[in-house]
Write a structure and sequence with these properties.
The complex is a heterodimer of chains A (257) and B (737). Chain A is an alpha/beta fold. Chain A is built from five helices and eleven strands; from the N terminus they run βαββαβαββββαβββα. Chain A has one domain: Rossmann fold. In chain A, 21% of the residues lie in helices and 23% in strands. In chain A, a hairpin with a 5-residue loop joins strand 10 and strand 11. Chain A is globular, with a radius of gyration of 17 Å. By secondary structure, chain B is of the alpha+beta class. Chain B has 26 helices and 28 strands. In chain B, the strands form five sheets. Chain B has a seven-stranded mixed beta sheet with strand order 8-10-7-11-9-12-13. A seven-stranded mixed beta sheet of chain B has the order 23-25-22-26-24-27-28, with helices on both faces. Classes of the chains: A alpha/beta (257), B alpha+beta (737).
């Protein structure tokens, strides 16, 4: 499968996400430059974490106007798979691809720490490799991750099972303490009604290698690959090419095309 | 005409002024005087410290670049180089904590990427006044937010460091930031204006009136007028810095750059004169072409502005167009403002007139160096001679008290505000002895740590300096790493006072000796003098940043206990040493005695033994002993493990119990291993002539220590954990009324 990682000015998890998709998950991965209009034939678009355009206004508020986002919207509109991680989630909210908004964390501080999230709905393209109720250990790193939606929207999201991940403790229990940023209904990850756009505050790319302490994040990427393979499998069955990248300690030049 | 007041405003003496007149053969104009004042300031010119800094060893087997460049460079094999440096931003952080700290991070990041390296980690050493005073909390909150705001946005992980509290920092907080970068060894860049006729290009943010005289400000004591100095502090823009990083690295990768230097302290002045002086060339620039944030700036302001996120590049004329294209792609300005000349002079034009015409060597290389008088402080005799107070009856309670001391307690409140995982390399998270980064695709990794104990240095500067080196190396040994290079930040009071100068000299000699014995070169760093407010100086505070190489990252031990029933081994010897300890300070309010003795040969053997045990895969947990001694180190192992396992330890040393539990004797490390491996560790220690013994086992929910058949510590892990965990956050809790 071919993944595209969007590079906005100020994205800083772009190479991390690229590294995991290409070097850990073995998928062909390309960077998509924010000024471009071409999605380069990718099967899935990932909006990575960071501080797009500095996030001096509301997080993600400027990024949604970038040329590439017009294409991402079209792509999502036609059923393409889109994952937004952290700042990517904030951008999806600002772009109207997902409902709701983000507030400052409840303690008004940036928070970087491992958290536990529970899979609420495993019948999605982003969570099918896990099971319902499964607890994942994945880090967060954000200032504005306190999800907000008005009550009627929240009940609609719940009714449609659009809440995919919720903050919980290590045993899967919800609590005010475990809901570190104060999100409504402890929401950590949200999918659109059509089921092809997911936003999540935790960083699965930071929990995809044993040496970094957790591999739970791979469940998200695995699910996406499974989904795409199944989708493609209905047509011509194409064996996934064994992709053998050379891993280097220094990233390649980002945004050079 | 330059009068006495103008000279005083520029922090120049009459003799220095006469020297300037001599060197340039006439009276300088105001702009030229400004240039000399800032380049000859203590901050840029190192005039009080230079003669002493020469004592540092600067050669070593991994060394590529020693002092004199923007940062030090070490060879780590596989075609890679590690680039690192520490710098202080103390004065600005006191005046405006958020921006002061933020631009401290920004400045050191530029020092690293200007050499062609991608910043991969930041560590910071922070010192504040006690947290029970609201103004200290406010400074700390601002500083931590500033570091967080800049580093997180830029996308560099802040992976470690230290936080200390002491009365002496109440009006002189210290913010020392160390950055580590990774580069290809064959793609390193230097600050050289080579090639007569080459273009001089200004890139990055526009020049504004901010930060004028920042370097001069950092070269004087503070009085009551500090509030007025706020405009001297620059404002940081991490987003612009991130773009600048990507654009510069891209231009470097495409071989478009001859030389490059960031505009930090002394801005355009420093970068133009230094680049030319180092290359033996000159430079001619047109100040009208410098991108400016506001209209009506005069040459003085343009040359001395310390606006952030700017770089000066020298490139061949035919590469300029391609270079501009890259900067445009990253939405940055790149403007040719002049060219490299062969007359070894800096010439600048403004509105068609020649406004600066000075020899660059005079500015850069001929700054006077002072061998200032030094005198042993009188207070030393009073504080080092003292008798140990009587031992408190309830050491079990003292144990909890120590765990809750902000100097010992958990620092998560600080580091969880930092993104410490971005770039997905951080293997060992903040809070351990050393931070460890894996290198993608390689077996090896990098370990790094910052260390310094100013109470030791106050009581005995030479030994304090030595211990700072030894302890930093010990931290690295606990990760199985070999120390390869040193950077240091020396924070002191006013060097014009002989007592301060004596402290400085002694500390430098102590550090130099230890580095020589550990065979690690000092690759650079920073001296911050005048850390005095209203005549009160900080304790002498050297901060050592040491980089280590980890051969095999899969063998790095955990910082906490991993499981129950494991064997706890103590390497090294317990001694009756309580001088300068956190215990004495906290329980008896005594800052007295001699800091613990250090035998460097013994220290090296203990570290080597630890390293070999780690590399052989024998060690599950390793932790060095420092503030709070053995009891605190054991408790930290409990708290830092995933399951918070307790321990049972039995000791029979013939020492005072308080010295045994809380004494800070050097050269000691706790190793934890499974039973069969423990035997191997003991055998290894015997072979290496290191004292090692089994002192207990992990397990249970309690922390228990016996001394000669008497139970002296017995506390539930959870109780201790809460004391340790909540200490700092509790100070910042909003009080509900």
């Amino acid at each position: 499968m071919k993944f595209g990682v969007v590079v906005f000015p100020g994205s800083n998890c772009d190479y991390d996400t690229f590294h995991v998709l290409q070097n850990v998950m073995g998928q062909e991965t390309v960077f998509l430059w924010h000024k471009e209009h071409d999605l380069r034939g990718v099967d899935c678009v990932v909006l990575p974490g960071g501080f797009s355009y500095g996030d001096y206004l509301r997080s993600g508020a400027i990024a949604r106007f970038s040329p590439i986002m017009r294409e991402v919207k079209k792509f999502a509109g036609s059923g393409g798979l889109v994952l937004g991680i952290c700042n990517g989630f904030q951008i999806l909210l600002e772009a109207g691809l997902l409902p709701g908004a983000m507030l400052r964390n409840k303690n008004l501080k940036f928070l970087c720490q491992h958290v536990h999230i529970r899979i609420e709905n495993n019948r999605t393209a982003f969570s099918s490799a896990g099971h319902r109720g499964q607890v994942l250990r994945i880090p967060i790193a954000h200032f504005d991750g306190n999800y907000y939606a008005p009550p009627d929207l929240l009940s609609e999201l719940e009714k449609n099972k659009q809440v995919v991940f919720r903050y919980c403790d290590e045993n899967g229990k919800l609590s005010e303490e475990a809901n570190v940023n104060g999100s409504a209904h402890s929401i950590a990850g949200l999918i659109n009604h059509q089921g092809n756009v997911l936003g999540m505050m935790p960083h699965p790319e930071r929990a995809s290698e044993k040496i970094l302490g957790s591999e739970d994040g791979k469940i998200i990427f695995r699910s996406m690959i499974d989904y795409l393979e199944k989708k493609r499998g209905t047509g011509k069955k194409k064996a996934t090419r064994a992709f053998r990248p050379t891993v280097t300690p220094l990233p390649p030049l980002i945004g050079t095309f | 005409m330059i009068d006495a007041k103008t000279l005083a405003d520029h922090n120049l003496t009459r003799e220095e002024y006469e020297l300037i007149v001599n060197l340039i053969g006439r009276e300088p104009n105001l702009t030229e005087l400004g240039i000399f004042s800032v380049m000859w300031s203590e901050h840029c010119g190192y005039k009080s410290s230079r003669v002493h800094l020469k004592k540092f060893p600067t050669r070593g087997k991994y060394l590529i670049q020693g002092p004199g460049e923007n940062a030090g460079v070490m060879d780590i094999g596989d075609g890679l180089a590690v680039v690192f440096k520490i710098e202080s931003h103390n004065h600005p952080s006191y005046i405006e904590p958020y921006q002061g700290a933020a631009t401290g991070v920004g400045g050191i990041l530029r020092d690293i990427f200007t050499m062609g390296a991608r910043p991969v980690a930041v560590l910071d050493s922070l010192r504040f006044g006690p947290l029970d005073q609201p103004e200290n909390r406010s400074i700390m909150d601002g500083v931590v937010s500033g570091i967080s705001g800049y580093g997180n946005s830029f996308g560099v992980p802040t992976v470690g460091g230290e936080v200390y509290f002491h009365e002496c920092y109440a009006q002189n907080p210290l913010v020392n930031v160390c950055c580590v970068g990774l580069a290809r060894k064959d793609k390193l860049f230097l600050a050289r204006a080579r090639g007569v006729g080459n273009a001089v290009i200004y890139v990055g943010a526009r020049t504004g009136r901010d930060g004028i005289h920042g370097a001069t400000m950092a070269s004087a004591e503070f009085g009551e007028e500090t509030e007025h100095k706020r405009p001297n502090v620059q404002v940081g823009d991490p987003f612009k810095e991130k773009l600048l990083l990507e654009a510069c690295l891209e231009a470097m990768a495409r071989d478009l750059i001859v030389g490059i230097q960031d505009m930090g302290a002394a801005g355009l002045t420093c970068s133009t004169t230094e680049m030319a002086a180092k290359a033996g060339t000159g430079m001619e620039i047109n100040l009208d072409l410098v991108p400016q944030r506001e209209a009506g700036m005069n040459p003085y302001e343009i040359m001395l502005s310390e606006s952030q996120e700017r770089m000066l590049i020298v490139a061949e004329p035919d590469k300029v167009e391609e270079l501009k294209k890259i900067f445009t792609k990253w939405d940055l300005e790149a403007v040719v403002i002049g060219k490299v000349t062969d007359d070894e002079r800096l010439k600048a034009y403004f509105h068609g007139q020649l406004v600066i015409d000075i020899p660059v060597k005079a500015v850069v290389d001929l700054c006077p160096a002072y061998r200032r008088p030094a005198r042993t402080p009188a207070f030393l005799r009073k504080v080092t001679r003292f008798r140990l107070p009587e031992m408190p009856s309830d050491l079990n309670q003292v144990f909890l008290q120590l765990l809750a001391s902000p100097n010992i307690s958990d620092k998560e409140w600080v580091f969880r505000q930092y993104d410490h995982m971005v770039q997905v390399n951080t293997m060992v998270l903040p809070g351990a002895d050393a931070a460890v980064l894996r290198l993608k695709g390689l077996k090896k990794g990098l370990a790094m740590t910052l260390d310094g104990n100013s109470l030791y240095t106050y009581l005995n500067p030479r030994r304090g300096g030595q211990i700072a080196v030894a302890e930093a190396c010990r931290n690295l040994a606990c990760a199985g790493a070999t120390p390869i290079g040193v950077t240091n930040c020396l924070n002191f009071g006013n060097p014009e006072k002989p007592e301060i100068m004596w402290q400085f000299k002694q500390t430098v000699e102590g550090i130099a000796e230890a580095c020589r014995r550990f065979e690690i070169p000092v690759t650079g760093g920073n001296v911050s003098f005048y850390n005095e407010t209203e005549g009160k100086a900080i304790y002498p505070t050297p901060v050592l940043g040491i980089i280590g190489l980890v051969e095999d990252t899969s063998r790095v031990p955990a910082a906490g206990f991993c499981g129950a029933g494991e064997v706890i081994i103590l390497l090294g010897e317990n001694k009756e040493e309580l001088g300068g300890s956190e215990y004495l300070r906290l329980v008896f309010s005594e800052e007295k005695g001699q800091p613990p003795a250090l035998n460097i040969e013994k220290e090296k053997r203990v570290q080597e033994c630890c390293r070999q045990a780690v590399r052989a895969g024998l060690v599950r947990t390793a932790h060095d002993l420092s503030e709070g001694g053995l009891a605190v180190a054991l408790a930290e192992c409990s708290f830092k493990g995933p399951h918070r396992i307790g321990f049972q330890v039995k000791l029979d040393d013939r020492l005072r119990t308080d010295a045994l539990l809380f004494g800070e004797s050097q050269s000691r490390i706790i190793l934890v291993a499974r039973k069969d491996k423990a035997r191997k560790i003991l055998a290894l220690a015997r072979k290496m002539k290191v004292r090692a013994r089994i002192i207990g086992r992990t397990g249970g929910r309690k922390m228990v220590i016996w001394h000669r058949k008497k139970k002296v510590v017995d506390q539930p892990v959870e109780l201790g954990y809460r004391a340790w965990k909540n200490s700092i956050p509790d100070y910042f809790k909003v009080k509900k009324t």
